Input
Amino acid sequence: MKGHGIEKQTSTPYRPQQNEVAERANRTLVEMARSMLHAQNFKKSLWAEAVVNAAYTRNRCPSRALLSITPEEAWSARKPCISHMHVFGCIAYAMVPDEKSGKLDAKGTKCLFLGYCEGTKAYRLMCVQSKKIIKCRDNEFMEDSTCGQ
Output
């Protein structure tokens, strides 16, 4: 591990202030999540979704510590694409597959955009009507509209 510049350091139990870098990163993510929740008038119960979205976003932002490249770029050695990113909490219509709807049923379900699914090209959405979290690839985003929860 030392060949990669990684060094193990221990800290005193119950003294988180000794690990300044990790504590600052956690604080940044929590502040980002708080801002996203308040901007959309969301309940605090969606805090975990906001933190995951904040981490995803933060990993795609340039960092001074990495000489102006993104953490994602440092990890994968390629510049991340951000064209798929959307505003947290915006309204998104998830397309209903033909197999799950009748001829005259709606083609989409109104949802709130929460984030990105790991390892797939799908998005995490919360259905406005049922309050269930769904994964969906085919969506129409209305980034100028929100539906505060």
Q: What stands out?
A: The two ends are 46 Å apart (CA to CA).
